[in-house]
Amino acid sequence: MSNYRLKLDKNRCIHCKACEVHCKSKNNTPIGIKLGVHTSSLPVMKDGKPFMKASYQCCYHCEDPACVDVCPTEAMKRRESDGIVYVIQDECIGCEACIEACPWHIPTFNKETNTVLKCDFCMDRVDAGLKPACVTACTTHALSFTEK
Amino acid sequence: MATDKSVYSVCGMCSVRCPILVEKRDGEAAWIQGNPHSALKGGLCARGAAGIALEKDPERPATPLIRVGARGEGKWREASWDEALDYVADKLKAITAEHGNRSVLWSDRGGPFVDLHQAFMRGIGSPNYCNHDASCARNVQHAAQSVLGMGRKMVSYDFRNAKHIILQTRNILEAINVAECNAVMDALGKGCKLSVIDIRANVSASKADNFFMVRPGTDYAFNLAVINELVTKKLYQAAYVEKYVGGMEELTAFIAPYTAAWAAEETGIPAERIVAFAQELAEAAPNVIWHPGWMVARYNDSFNVCRTAYIINALLGSVGVKGGLPLVNTPKDVGKKGLTKLVDLFPKPEEKRADGVGWKHPQFDGGPGLVNLAYDAIATGDPYPIKAYLCFRHDPLMAMPDPEAQKKKWENLDLLVSITFSWSDTAWHSDVVLPMSTYLSRESILASKSGPKPQFFVRHRAMQPTLNTKADWEILCGLAARLAGSHPGMERLAFKSIEEIWDYQLQNTGLTMQDFAAKGFVELVEAPVVREVESFPTPSGKLEMDSGKWGKAGIDTLKPYVSPAKPQQGMFRIAFGRVGVHTQGHTVNNPLLHEQMPENVAWINTSRAEELGIADGDLVEVLSGGKPAGTMRAFVTECIHPEALFMVHGFGHKLPVESRAIGKGVADQELMAGGLEVWDRSGGGLSLQEHFVAIRKA
Questions:
Q1: I want to staple B263 with a disulfide (CB 3.0 to 4.6 A). Which of B150, B206, B225, B411 is the partner?
Q2: How far apart are CA B333 and CA B337, in angstroms?
């Protein structure tokens, strides 16, 4: 796993989907591709009270990532300094081996560029001492990003 | 990150106008977050996050357009800005020469930047400035004036220090104001209780300690029973009531029949729950906020629902109190000079308003009027003809009920202009479309915000416009320059640059634009000021349980309860509301927000769906007045009252220029036949939920 922990406080989450849209806006991802997925649903009645589930999932940034192992061009990398797993777009040939190898099929194929996209915790922001876009701009600050 | 200098600005996706920080790259807006120096601390909702997608979307008016076919036919010719502004100015000159200056009507969406619009209308010499509020907050505004003697925005909500928050007609976690959401979530994290009274379990209800699913249209009954409990069991704040509240005897006599047992029959909420709830409120007093509502154009008694909310706050001693509803401060209240107003460039027109506000309806607030009543003046010429109508960032055909009836009332107009950054039904029906730059590519006039810490704030241009659009001030000052000959004095509004306008506004404040550089806003006082209340600006000086001003106008503010109509066999009361990812109609075609939620669904109670043989996810046809009005998917759920059919407002677009939104979902305003004539005479708001529909499996 990476040095970081991205966590959703379900009590504070208001299901507004800003996390997804901030991610898309910052990373300029095409329609249909989400690097971070907020799972929510319309409410259900549970013991006479309305209930909504909430979770936010992006890449797990595994300690020993299968996606990195199978990448034929070494476009998929794990950064030694902090464990962030990322794709070098210029070196990706779009073979999708990483998508198959990932137990959760988290990397996503981008038809517009014929390359694979995945969450890199907004590495450029992390390197500038900032937090990922989804965390910085979460409407109610329900998402947190901490070093383990 | 190779970024250019970031820009502090103000969001424009909804009517909240949150402070933002726009990161730039290569001269363009690259990412938006909430202004980190503000209470948002970087947070910004999904709509705000999608602002760049709006700027880059070519599916909005790209250049000025002049209609060449019939109204609404969609046949246009493209025009240069000079030609379009000349065209509108020439029409206005001819219309005002023939019918007088008062024949011009304006409507917008209200908000902090309307000084410029009001100045333009004063420069023309027309009293007919309106905003959208007849279909939004008029009832609560007038309720505030009838109880507190001042407008609803003259009190704030100190959520962070509250011990119990009650939401009724305010879905605070879905009709998102980012700062408010954070304050509420902070309060809940500290143990504040939340109670939600609604016909539907929304996101706010999913966080509630108490959720009361009332029968649609019975909020007034619920509130009367709470008042009955507070008064008869002496659960109110006696010392506060003694000092600040007037009309307790009248109130006590009035509420006697409205017991919790009586309300249980009306609302469907067991009497013991109402009794226990009143007790909880008393325990939290005075740190209680019973939110009086925001979008309250719902029922024929919505004014009284809002009034009783204020009355409950008064009984619990929370008005003017920390942890309750403290009074806000204007610049003057903290010893500072306000911005110089653009309206002060012109004298106030002496004509009576065409909508009758201020003379036919003396109790109503003159500011934004009741635009639906001004439409009657277009149709009938009574009290005088209205011949030109300018819609600014306002889409009445989607915001107000019964668009076909509106179009009919507008037939006598010689000029209908839309100033808009997105396509809308109203723009499509207009004679001229003047495309406005998005909030990312325009500046706005300086604005002030009253509050515990009053401030001035500024919207800067974060990038140049992508399409051939102009800023609001460029359009109105451009028209002012062209009208200077026909409307003496109008040249005063023909500013050449936004800097000139800002300098004019700041002239008495001792501030310069440099003072806005560090944070994007200037706070006029260092720490929040909670002002001690001496008396209230009502006729009696007290919080009026029975309003003197409304009484003088012949309106009973202790109005006996009337039970709402039950839907006939097989019918539903139409209900509508908000969702976090969209804001009214204009975001439905935004690529990123459309991806989040492409269409609305019909919420139907499980028992009713079973009766009709409808399963979750089925396509259903909605019928209004017996006629099919559109199809949508059913969401079959226990989370809505059986009498209601709910949908999110803003869908059902029909314009061919909006490829994503077209044909998705149903438009609730089209289900309200005759709805322009159904409004609350005490409060002025339209009664958008006093309409019934049927559904059948498609």
A1: B225
A2: 9
Q: How many CB pairs under 8 A join A and B?
A: 124
pLDDT digits (tens, 9 = 90+) for B129-139: 999 999 999 99
Looking at the complex, report in whole angstroms how far the Cα of residue A128 sits from the nearest Cα belonging to chain B. 7
Taking an 8 Å cut-off on Cβ atoms, the answer to whether B181 and A139 are in contact is yes
Query: What is the distance between the alpha carbons of residues B65 and B61, in angstroms, rounded to a whole number?
Result: 8
Angle between helices B219-232 and B248-255 (to 10 degrees): 120
B510 at interface of A, judged by CB pairs closer than 8 A: no
Cis-peptide, bond into residue B286, ω within 30° of zero: yes
Q: Kindly state the average pLDDT of the residues B469-485.
A: 98
ipTM over 0.95: yes
> How many angstroms away from the CA of A101 is the closest CA of chain B?
28
Residue A2: predicted pLDDT: 81
For the record, the structure tokens of B301 come out as 């008694």
Pick A17's closest partner by Cβ from B33, B34, B581: B581
Task: Report chain A residues whose CB lies below 8 A from the CB of B202.
Answer: 43
B39 CB within 8 Å of a chain A CB: no
Helix (H, G, I), strand (E, B) or coil at A55: strand
Burial environment of residue A90 by CB neighbours within 10 A (0 to 12, 13 to 18, 19 or more):
exposed
Contact A21 B174 (CB under 8 A): no
B173 touches chain A (CB under 8 A): yes
- The answer to whether B302 touches B267, Cβ cutoff 8 Å, is no
**Closest listed residue to residue B494, CA positions, set B211, B116, B108, B134:** B116
Cβ distance B639 to A31 less than 8 Å, yes or no, reads no
Count of CB atoms situated within 10 Å of the CB of B459: 27
What whole-number distance in Å separates Cα of residue A140 and Cα of residue B191? 17
CB contact at 8 A, B235 and B284: no
Backbone angles phi, psi at A73, to 5 degrees: -110, 5
CA angle (B578 as vertex; B671, B41 as ends), nearest 5:
160
By C-alpha distance, the chain A residue nearest B591 is A31
pLDDT digits (tens, 9 = 90+) for B542-580: 999 999 999 999 999 999 999 999 999 999 999 999 999
Mind telling me how many Å the CA of B36 is from chain A's nearest CA?
Answer: 9
CA distance B411 to B385: 12
Q: Is B42 on the interface with A (CB under 8 A)?
A: yes
Assess B604–A contact: CB distance below 8 Å, yes or no: no
Task: State the residue for tokens 């809505």.
Answer: B640
Residues B24 and B463 sit within 8 Å (Cβ to Cβ): yes
Q: Does the CB of A31 have a partner CB in chain B at under 8 Å?
A: yes
Instruction: Kindly state whether B203 is in contact with chain A, defined as any CB-CB distance less than 8 angstroms.
Output: yes
Q: What share of chain B is helix, strand, coil (3-state, %, to 5)?
A: 35, 20, 45
Burial pattern B438-452, b for ≥16 Cβ within 10 A else e, equals bbbbbbbbbbbbbbb
Query: pLDDT tens track of chain A, all 148 residues?
Result: 689 999 999 999 999 999 999 999 999 999 999 999 999 888 999 988 999 999 999 999 999 999 999 999 999 999 999 999 999 999 999 999 999 999 999 999 999 999 999 999 999 999 999 999 999 999 999 999 999 8
